[in-house]
Each structure stands twice: as structure tokens, then as C-alpha cells.
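Hey,
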Amino acid sequence: MDSNSIINSNRIDVVSLGVGDLATLAVDARVAISSADVLIGADHHFQEVYQLASTARCIKYPSPFNKLDELLKLYAGHKITVLASGDALFFGVGRSLCNLIDRSLLRFHANVSSVQACFHAIGMPWQNARVVSLHGRSTSSIRRELRPGIALAVLTDTISTPQVVAAELIHADMSESTVWVCESMGSDEQVVNTYTARELVNSNRRFHALNVCIAQLNSNGQHLPTFPGIADHLFLTGSRPGFGMISKREVRLSILSCMQPVPGEIAWDIGAGCGSVSVEWSRWNPLGKIYAIESNEERISYLNQNREKFGVEDNCMVVHGVAPAVCGGLPKPNCIFIGGSSGALNELLELSWSVLEVGGKLVVSAVTTESQQVIDDWRQKAQETQVTAEWIELSIRKTIASDRSIRELAPVQILSLVKPGNMTTQLVV
């Protein structure tokens, strides 16, 4: 963390208020509140702790929240205590503070999160549960987690209500899943109600704004893939199912194995088409971010529909334009895949190799003889890489009704290079 991110030389206390009353606070947390010059939090936080900190100056969280650093700078030199609901380090203010301030200057006081309280209220072990926050996120982001047999906790907001969550379950053919709606946990208004998704979507109940949904997911049959290798027909392309501008499953899996998605990394998909590579990359790598670059408006329309369908709108970003012209403002990548070049393949190869981070991966696919020749010429110029080319020809046999037909994919050449100090490279399909 650079020195510019350290915005206060004094230690800042961060007190998680949990879901109970003040009696749940440890002694050091109570002292952090009572001795504070400045309390930062929400109005309901100040009401909860008033008896402990009646002389502190109470400052509400800034709006927009990204101005928190300005607020902390304003009160630099004062003894600051930040108040948080539940657990500050579980989808709370703690993450923002860790990005702003050296962690050695932060002291966190633990407490029970709302999700933990909800699982205890319904008596369900939750060590294998998945948790999704819909605060400020598209509702479709829940779709990447909808897998039969798992327990899913959903942090809702005023838009993504329990009924909206239930609608997502029904859309995924999970209408008989059990859903517990846990309202206002730890307060006098706490209530937990149980529904099936089908019952909940039709409920007229207005739930308390502070609620969490716990769902035990059960599939009625069809559901989105739970393992890499999404079937071609599941992508929307405007053509017959399984056809159109997508990298077919067998080739796509080879491309992804070369890209080796890593949590936290940035990737570019140049010539993304309808988005099969970008969508599958981002579905299995939720902590990474991929930029899908495409110039054709019709393909972008299907790309956006596929992003929504598979719940990856938050980490699969669409860039409308022609590469390399639109690449200048993008974050520096750890990985680049070139699937389409609009006749500028050699230029894209040069650009990609120059902008890649050290250790970055460059993966290129080519079907036409012209593109394959460009790749081969470029490869020969980089003699120190000692790249060797391999070919695989894929033949897919399918039985359709009573007919037996053979559909053959054109041979695809895939170039894969790594950019370390001493480069190790390979060309695979």
C-alpha cells in the first residue's frame, strides 16, 4: 500500500455492532466507542450506542460512499471510531477502510454477522454455504451461484427483494427450493418465515428493509451448468442453437486452459463475438475481470444477453469498438485472448505482447489460412520463444432424431505464450 493511501496517522477503531444489543460488545469495543472524539456511522448506529458515547461528535457515512477517504482526512488527528452493522469485515465498511488505510492503523472489533445469525436462527450448518450480496449489484449476479444442493445466503436491498430472489430461483427451474426470509435479526422485530420459492414469488408481504434470504437449492431438472464446458446451444447467437459467432465448446475449453484464469487478474478478449469465451471465463473466475472487445452491434446485443443469462455482468465488461483503437483506456491485462482481428492480427499481436504484464499470457486462435500464416510469420520473428505449432482436427458426431449426421469443425490453431523474464511458450489446440 503506497503512502498516499495512509490518510490518518492515528489508529482508527472499527466496531462491529453485531445483531444484538450493547451487551454483546466486548470491553475493548465499548471503550473504543466511549473514548472516541468522532463516531462515523449511520443514524441507527448512533442511537444504539448513545449511552456509551453521548459526548462524541457523530458524523454520518458520506454519500456517495466513495468520499469516505475525504471524511477521514477531515478528522485526521482525532480519535475516530467507525461503527458497522453486523460484521464490518463481511460485506461491510471494513473492506473500504482496508483499501484506504494501512491495516496496521486499523483495529477491528469482531461481532456476529447477520448471515451467521440467520443460519443459527434456522439451525443450519453453514460452513459450505455460498453468500451473495445484491447491494449495488445486478440481480442476475445470483445466477452464477445457483447450483443444486447448496445453501445460499442472499443479502438483499430495496430493489432485490425476497420476491425478486424467488423469481430468480424459479427462472433457474428451482421453484421448490426452500427459502427462509430472516428479518431485522437481533432486534425486537426479528421474524423468520419459511416458503418455497414458488410461494414466495406470489407473496404480497412487505418485508422489513433489513432482511436476508437463506435458500436450500433444489432443482426441478434443468439448470445452468455447474462445471466448465458450457454447451454451445445455451449461448444466444441469433442463429440456430450451437451455431453463430462463438468459440465452440471443445475449442473454448482449450482456450480457457491456456488462459488459466486467476482470481483478481485482468483479461482482454479481443473479437469477443457473442461472448462464449468471456462469459465462461468470468463465470468460473468471479474475482477476475475480463473486457470483451467487439465492434459488431448485433453480436454485442447477444453478448449482453449472454452476460445476463449466466450472471456475469459484474465482472464481464463489454467494450464496443475496434481493437486496437479502443484498447488504450483499458486496465493493463494479465491475459489477452485474440479470437477475432478484423484484418489487424499482426498489429494486435504486437500490441498485446507489448502491453502484457510480466508473466502475462497471450492466447490466439485462428481458423483461416491467412490468419494462421500471420501467426506463423509473427512467431518466427520471435525466435527466442522457440514456439512450436500443433494441430488438432475435431470431428463431432451427433444423432438428431432418427438421422445420423456428422458435423466437422474446421481445424483451429491456438497459439499460447507466457511473458516472463525467461519465456516458456507453447502452441496448442
